[in-house]
Amino acid sequence: MSSSAMTIGAAAKRAGCPVATVRYYEEIGLMPEAERRPGGHRLYDETDVARLIFIRRCRELDMPIGKIVALLAISDDGARPCAEALDLTHEHLAAVRSRLNELRELERTLAAFAAECAQTCCQGSSATCTLFSELREPARRGGAARPT
Amino acid sequence: MSSSAMTIGAAAKRAGCPVATVRYYEEIGLMPEAERRPGGHRLYDETDVARLIFIRRCRELDMPIGKIVALLAISDDGARPCAEALDLTHEHLAAVRSRLNELRELERTLAAFAAECAQTCCQGSSATCTLFSELREPARRGGAARPT
DNA sequence: TTAGGACCTCAAGTTCCTTGAGGTTCAAGA
DNA sequence: TCTTGAACCTCAAGGAACTTGAGGTCCTAA
Taking the model in full, what pTM does it have? Predict the structure, then answer.
């Protein structure tokens, strides 16, 4: 538990991301400036790796960098109320759910288009393909009145 | 049904997108080079608007530009088999479904984290918040063996 | 000693637009 | 006819989150 210094390659491997990404996080200030060996190579310890994993985990959860910065600030200052972090999480959860709903609708629409084509026209040529006619229709959401 | 020439502003409005986007589509070759008035203003007709709506619709369905280019090529050459378009659509549908599954998992994970924090720690400070400890754990997907 | 792998620093590319600056053109009202 | 003011024009750069590439240095092990 003493000398846990490792190269950027080892740290990146532990966090499961490319080396270039680690440098990028340092560049934008998500990661602190790494110590260096005399030759210039970066050095990382367990704390760095934990932070890196934290960041990657958040990114896997699709959080934008800005939100991760905010979370790290709360974490770095151990005295701030945990409720702040929970708020951020709920905010992000809402964004994920909203995107989820969009994608569900999207899937339905695409599947319907494909089914129609498969049933009625897919032996023919593109000139009569229903996919193209459907795609040329403006999307009908809810019950919006169409312009005459 | 004769003189349906309109400005870029009118065309953009019909397609429901910003004017700058229409110019951008021309720049990257998704839209053909528009005719111009003597003063330089672009002119569009119904065919252009239909193409624009097609493109926007595809983008709403989250298709990458490259796939739209491919679809338009099939559509432009009316003789190509409709099955090609259906293939592209299925391909895209698969991408959408895959993303959908990712997001569903994401939502579960986030919701679980938030619930845990809300139940056990959210009165406290960030130093003991479960959100941070959870986020520092590498994600456990399926049953992958953990490195020792 | 030397090979080659890992590392270094810029710089530019990716995707799909959006925003901004600085300058024309056009339609319409006075 | 003149004059607004909106709509248009052309670059150029920015944004998110990295990735890729070029050209060069450092380190480890045989």
Answer: 0.78
